Request: fold
Amino acid sequence: MAFIEVAGVTKAFVTSSGLSREVLYDVSLSVERGEFVSILGTMGCGKSTLLKIISGLVAPDTGQVAIDGEVLRGIRPSAAIVFQNYSLLPWFSALENVRLAVGAAFPDWTRGRQREQAVRHLESVGLGKAVDRRPGHLSGGMRQRVAIARAFAIEPELLFLDEPFGALDALTRDSLQQELSRLCSVAGRPITTVMITNSVEEALLLSDRILPMTAGPRATLGAPVAVELAKPRSAGELLHDDHAAEVRAHVVASLTADLERARARRRLDGGRPSRRTAAAAEGPALRIAPEIEG
Amino acid sequence: MKRVTNFLLPAIGILLALIVWGAASTIVKDLPSPIRTWEESKIYILKPLEKRGEMDQGIALLAYYSLMRVARGFLLGIAMATPLGFVLGMSRTMTRIFDPVLQILRPISPLAWLPLGLIIFQKSEPAALFAIAVCSMWPTVINTMAGVRAIPQDYWNVAKVLRLSPFTTFAKVVVPATLPYMFTGFRLSLGIAWLVIVASEMLTGTPGVGGFLWQEYNSLIYAHILLAILTIGVVGFVLDRLMGLVEARLRAI
Reply:
């Protein structure tokens, strides 16, 4: 049995107009211990909802999530989550933000040791000089570094990344992706990671396996694609690698085919799609072009 | 140019108010003119800390008595209001239960609470504090409640993801996130407390700006009534500005 087992998860939300909208439909997946898996899909397809369910932040309507053979109820102590919008507390300094997490994860440690752990992890993401600054005085990239430091500082066994670099500019994104892959490789124990992304390149750079997600509503996962390349990888290498090109083509083909199917289905239905559904399927499309470092 | 707008324009406003006052005093026989008011009250202003009798004291002393009374009533009020605000903000059920009571108690005037206070406490001083506390607590209750409800889902998620204990969540997330709203409540509450002090001093006859005002009315010294009114206005204005400064600092985070 795999480390993370998601079986038959379904989730619906009630929209403001009172209609029930099925976001996820019968989603199953498994992740091995120490594996880095990316769930790749268009914006609004329900992948963030899926991550919230896998991490225990939100309960599914039906189906279940089991981690290490145990059915998930709420967030596990050994799990860390990094959100797209950083989710730092603005009234605390970078250090206090990280220390709050350390204090909750290791309540038996002395205050000195908790502080030391927080400082060490901030230093490891290059923020040694900015520990006393509040998030309001940090750039987006630096804030996300704090959030990453906070995640690693609790020495997690599980790491959930919800489009962690989605709000950053291309250059900052590249350097943080490298940083993340380095942190994952130097951590004392294998960290099982599930990342949500809409960038094929980001998925290629970091993951062992890519799970394409079909367009919502009633989103579900397509066939997984393994990325069999040694880590750490660099964006430059990936541009010229044949296997990477194959994976890229495969993933893109499966996602675009799915988008076409979704469109055809709506045309066949004859009915006009609701505005929200249309936006979800056609909205900001996948970032499929490799981002060339400038 | 900046100095013109900062000082000259407000000065014009004050001058106009004095002219209207002066004009009104020529029409209304018993209303003292600004100059007569100054002549008759300057001893209170020029010797602000002199104590000549129980009510016959310098204006700074009288204002000080009133301020101390307000401070005690206000602190008592927000000590009741803040926890109530947090409870109502965090629980919809509690809001459903207490909302009608709150809405009914809120519009009651200090003049109505004071006799009740006198019945309960038998003495004027605690009755005054009771009236101030009960009247001034509502803005703090309502703003604290609104502040808790306005906490972004992100912050609740942080508390959940970091698995913070209920106490830590409250101390490190809920309170700091609500603080700016709370202080808006405190500021409005203090404004009301200052309004109530005058009414309660007038009714209980205790020394202070309000008590002084009522006594001078009974002694037919109308200029001193105007002195008391202006003092109340100036002190209230300064209090509001001070609270505004604290509030602005909190919002700057």
